[in-house]
Amino acid sequence: MTYKPVTHVLFDMDGLILNTEELYTIGFQEVASRYGKQFTFDLKTKIMGQQSREFAGNIIDELELPMTVDEFLSETKMIFEKLFPESKIMPGVKRLIQHLHDNNIPIGLATSSSKETYDLKVVNHQELFDLLPYKTWGSSDPLVTRGKPYPDIFLVAASKFPENPEPDKCLVFEDSLNGVRAARGAGMQVVMVPDMRLDRSRTADATLVLDSVEDFQPELFGLPPFSD
């Protein structure tokens, strides 16, 4: 496949920059276990990238949990307040973000998380996230009216760049199927770094699929190559 040169880069956060998808699984399973239910990888794949109230409703419906969305979010909030500060940066991410920053490539964050949960997740990684000056929190931003797989979050995130780039000049990094569909729907190229358990036949919508951000070659998209 040939790739088109880009000038701007947007990053998803959960499962892409941070290992928080693992922490979500732990938290959701803790609630599900109270009712003898299993939070499966298949269900996880369906809800990844969705806004908080949407994924809560889908988990409740799928697992037939006897609780409301607000009750689910309240219970998981207490769990995640303990888990999220333990988040870790995924391999290759710090190097790439620092590289793009050092080469004056405009970079931004486009996460479905709320500002509240974002603050918990990045408490020990503030220096890295300070390199992403343009941030969009999908569950908190009133302009993001629909969650992934709708393109809203990426269109809103791109509009925050002062240069107001065309969508085809933006490259998105994602780990979820919903995120890939959202980026493609926004008219952007997308590098997917999926969970290793995901059937690769389901990743056809992505522009490029990698096992790790460590494997990314910036020059494929007209970005400055790594010097080391």
Structure overview:
The chain has 228 residues and is α/β, with parallel strands linked by helices. It has two domains: 8-19 and 87-221, Rossmann fold; 20-86, DNA polymerase, domain 1. Helices cover 38% and strands 11% of the residues. It has nine helices and six strands; from the N terminus they run E-H-H-H-H-H-E-H-H-E-H-E-H-E-E. A six-stranded parallel sheet has the order 3-2-1-4-5-6, with helices on both faces. Strand 4 (170-174), helix 9 (177-185) and strand 5 form a beta-alpha-beta unit. Helix 1 packs across helix 4 (69-83) and helix 3 (52-63) packs across helix 4. The mean pLDDT is 96.
For this structure, what is the CATH homologous superfamily of the largest domain?
Answer: HAD superfamily/HAD-like
Please trace the helix and strand order, writing H or E for each element: EHHHHHEHHEHEHEE
| Main pleated sheet | 6 strands, parallel
Structural class: alpha/beta
Q: How many runs of DSSP E, i.e. beta strands? A: 6
Helix content: 25-40%
Number of domains as seen in the coordinates: 2
- The CATH class of the largest domain: Alpha Beta
What kind of assembly state do the chains in view correspond to?
single chain
Average pLDDT rating? 96
Estimate what percentage of residues fall within beta strands.
5-15%
Q: Supply the number of helical segments.
A: 9
Question: Under the CATH scheme, which architecture of the largest domain would be assigned?
Answer: 3-Layer(aba) Sandwich
Q: Supply Rg.
A: 17 Å
What CATH calls the topology of the largest domain is Rossmann fold
Estimate the global geometry from the Cα principal axes.
globular
Distance between the termini: 26 Å
Low confidence ranges: none
**For the largest beta sheet, what order do the strands appear in spatially?**
3-2-1-4-5-6
